[in-house]
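so the lab meeting is tmrw and i was supposed to have these ready like two days ago... anyway. pasting both below. for each one the top line is the aa sequence and the line under it is the structure tokens. i havent really looked at them closely yet so no promises
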Amino acid sequence: MKRFWFTGLMFCLLVLVSTNLALAANANPEGQIVIVGTDIETLNPMLSESTYETVVLNGIFSQLVRMDEAGNLVPDLALEVPTVDNGGISADGKVFTFHLRKDAKWHDGKPVTAKDVAFTWEMIMQAPQVVSRDGFSDIERMETPDDYTVVMYLKEQRAAWLLNWAAISGAILPAHAWKGVEPKEFTKAHKLSRQPIGSGPFKLVEWKPGSHVILEANKEYYGEGPYLAKFIYRAVSDSNTQLTMLKTGEADIAMNLVGDQYPQVQAIKRLQVSLDPGSAYTHMTFNLDNSLFQDKRVRQALNYALPRQLIVEKVLKGIGMVATTSTAPILWAYDDSLEPYPFDPEKAKDLLTEAGWVDTDGDGIREKGGKRLAFSLSTSAGAKDRAQIAQIAKQFWKEIGVDLEIKLVEATMLFGDVLENRKFDMIMFGWLTPADPDEFTLYHSSQIPTPENEMLGQNYAGYVNPKVDQLLEKGKSLLNQEERLPVYRDIQKIIYDELPMLYCYYFVDIHAAPKALENWRPAPFTNGINWNVNQWRLAK
């Protein structure tokens, strides 16, 4: 690995310098792996917000570059990861040149070319329903001087910019298949969002929503493998059912395992099991358009009254860490000077009283201006741990005068209409952070999904803070990690105080897979547990 320098400044992202060597596709793939997880909503990578969808999309699609389990960038469709040394990055850090491999084909047999990369970027910038344009909007223009060369011109230097193309949202789409489709038609309902044509190691055989996705080996894959004949994803949200399927052999890998299941998973002799600190966290996001939450003292009171250590011990059986902000401890910018809010219900009561919320009628629920301190918390049905957390929140918040209604919503609806259109008071789900601490799309005011911006962005809280906006913009523009560090520490301190979300816990992931599965190297970042699914093989 090396560090890259732009005009004397260190590029903060570590990149594994490697070249894509032509490898013959495996002619005799064998066996299958079955993964169980929450139901999915789309097979269009640009429209996906779910780690469950990422697991399926990793099999179907290719990217210019990928990120391995250590956070290094490795080539995929690109022959090399662009660097200053190999001529892929200009001296001023604003021009990136990608040379594509010439043996990659779409699943319909057409060649993958530079036109597909240009089309992908154009659709990201034009389609109203894409999740985010963060990073991609930094590109001023793109040129394709020949079928296998792509030149991207940035408006200005950007730290860790290449990570955008390593995320599944940067997966390359086939221009010829989408030809004639207007950006406004680029939706989850479109046929190609449900029957996609990719260039990855597996082809789609069948997607039956609510049941399963079946992928089969792409024998014309340009890279290593695939060694598996089939890769199957089954939609099973309930963690108890997932555990049972592991025990019976109906499933090989489960995505929703929780702490109290760990001893039972360990006891399954055919599995290799590990506990690995992750970059994900569970949180409760406030809808700050709701007048109940616009005083930060109310948000702080709810945080003080949430027994997060109890949650880690009781719900997770100690397999997790109480969270402070959205920056996980495994990230280089994590601020360990911030202590988790202590459980202090008396402090919570004082803050609510100070904010004018008082129980005037003696029914146990506080009121202010004729309005009760009552609201709902939406979370996914079938997620055992989140249902338990919601019940704990309801119990302890009632003791400080808060009336909480719990709404258990099917995952496709929760992550679709409810989240995307901000139809919630509070919403609880897990969030997987990238390898870089930039959270522009999560906290910048321009990223609040509204009808005016065509619901673009992931600032679902509706959080607005000009100082945070300024810091986020500054953090993206600096290239030296030492200079970026205090910027992201300052952001964490503000977020810690203002709490647009309640940060419950950081994940310690329970990873379990068959002992016979070789090259099982789950990643803690947004690239998912099967970023290298093409390399998976079952030992004979």
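ok protien two:
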Amino acid sequence: MKALIILALCAPPDSSMLAVSGASSMEELDETQTELYQHLESHPVNLNTASRRQLVASGLFTPFQTASLLDYRARAGDILSLAELAAVDGFGQSFVRAVTPYVSLRTRAPAGESSAENGIKAEASARMWAKTDDGAAALSYGGKMKIGAETRLSAAVAFKRGYAPDISLPEVFNWSAALYGRRIPATLIVGDFNARFGQGLLSWSGFSLSGLSSISAFYKRPSGLSPSFSYSSTGLRGAAAEVELGQFTLSAAIAAPRRKGQAATALAGLSWYGLKAQAGLNAMRSPKGFYGVSADFRLNTGKTDIFGEAAWDTDERRVRGILGAVRNIEYDIKIAGRAIYQQDKASAAIGAQYRQNFASLEATLKNGAGTIKYLAAAPLSLSESITFSLRLKGRLEKDKGAVNAFRVTADWAGGNWKARLLTDLGKGTTLSGLVYLEPGYVTDRFSVYARATLFASGNWDQRIYIYERDAPGNFNMKAYYGRGWAASAVAGWKIKKQRVHLRASLTDSNRVTRMEFHGQYSIEF
């Protein structure tokens, strides 16, 4: 039988990260989230073999999309093309285009039948960073290793040491091992793991997008219990298990305190997955020693998704809630609304999307003080090789006035050559601005980028965050303030299953002169 392999290579990784996460720029993400997407890029989820538990744990799909995909597979067998995937209820062309780098459609089954697959894979990477600030040197290092079979088991370890004058023991050491049952659909995790349920009112470890930069940012995609192998210590450490019982999933976990003075964390949950509706009940003992319960739901009525969660704990001793909806008015028109109530905070937000154009407005009242946040983003395509992206983002607070940021990004692609010109202008108590030009050359085995940056910012409150290109698996975010310039170069080589990445940068401002060198080696075997 002929194997059909469709790998995700058609969309730029950063644009796919933004589309899937709901962020409007890389600066809105964090290290754990970018690590997850970069891992999925090199280890895509096989949509023809993944279980419901694995689809949910990936964080790529809503509960309705997961149920719809499993129902389609049971009725029609393996999915053989991206066009067929887009036809699955709840997916569509725009969503498939976004998740393409993170999924595969490998199959060895005849049309109309379902396949299963095994195979052990292993990967390892090591990195070394060095920098000098006005002549003072510091070193940083880290490493990762993961081994596993797609549908049976996985084990991973990650360690990191931040910048220090000398080489010392890692300050972060994360590890996890997971076993996936075949006859009994269950998952057992020991070590570091994430627990993400409902809309995050009771239990949501790790990254959580705070802004409303797209329609998908109005709601969370709960991934339940999943192993963690990040450079960041944002999850839980202990033991966790999930068991699928028909349409129900039973979850339980216990985690040791991560800091002195904290209590052990314990949680239990029961989730029900229907084709058009999902619901869950959860209970948790938090690291602060408080107890809480929550109930969440999601309902699909055809063109409308309704979601919500209510929670109560012994700390606040009052009900917290979130209720929202997303409606597809037409094929390329969506609107969304969401309301959140907590002890000292209440907010309401609306958003609208037409094709790739988006706008949102959020009003928040906290401790008697009001804040209004707004965002508008629009792409502009001049040709197949030239595209623009415009974004206005602002905040209005009582007694503080308005803070606005306007960003224009221009991208050009011609064959193996690429280039990006980004301009960011901000207005608060003072003016701030940044502009960079980044040309690049990319082939299947080699890539090189160079960036030149100019910036001016009056104070720390007016700092400009810019995502810096680096080796896969590294989240490099830089805050620019003061006045000065910066230059960087990044190169990568792929030799069979080995990859080498190098980065060098120089920043010169009225605050500091900094040189940095990054190196990373990765191998798959």
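from a quick look at the 2nd one: The radius of gyration is 23 Å. The chain has a mean pLDDT of 86. will dig more after coffe
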